[in-house]
Amino acid sequence: MKLVPFLLAFIILLPALSYAVTNTYGPVTITGPEKVAIGQTFNYTVNVEQIFNHYKIVFLLSGYNLTGASPISPQYLNGTFTPQNFTITAPSVQTTLFLFFQIIAYLNGQVFYYNITQTVQVLNYTVLKVKVYNPTKFIFKDLNVSFYVNGEYVGSSQLNISGNTTENVTYQWLSGTLSPGIYNIQAKINSSVVKLIGGKYSIDIQVGNPYLEYVYIIIAIVLAMVVVIVLITAIYNRRNKPKWKK
What we know:
Low-confidence stretches: 1-18
Number of strands: 17
Oligomer: single chain
Mean pLDDT: 86
């Protein structure tokens, strides 16, 4: 993957789009992302209603490829009636994670079990980039920069920018593995004063070495030239071979 040459270096302001969802299972509510970037650290929150005497949580992370993931061993937590957070690091490869939560709750001598499995897609990401310029002497806060790929909205980043300054904004688009082709990127900002610099550009995705076919052509030409030289040399030597008399 390569960006067009006029793009400059940028910094990441926000983490990848997390696609956070909230699911409720009786007295248990679990909140966390359905999609994350490879290597991203994210949280899942478990909240249990205050109808039990006390409870425990067992958490287990599993998947088809957990290279670089954590935690790799079961986690045990004595719950309190406040949201409980589990910090997870995604693997360094694309895969699907399975998050298993078992809530063991106790009420007046009775035990209640809630077994919940959440799936999280771990995807490759593509960094989208743009520059923002504030031509005034005023500070602008909570500006929103939206990114579009081939005309479709994919996410946004927020920033604060001081007067007479230029800021770099990036966004980690959870694109997965992109098919070969040209992707047109456009950025928009919710301000008529603060401006975007280079708000439109293209990303050219190719498979393998785009110059490999030219390498093959050059090799074929060189081999053909060698063959021609060998043939010419052989013919020349044959014509100039001395004739022996008896």
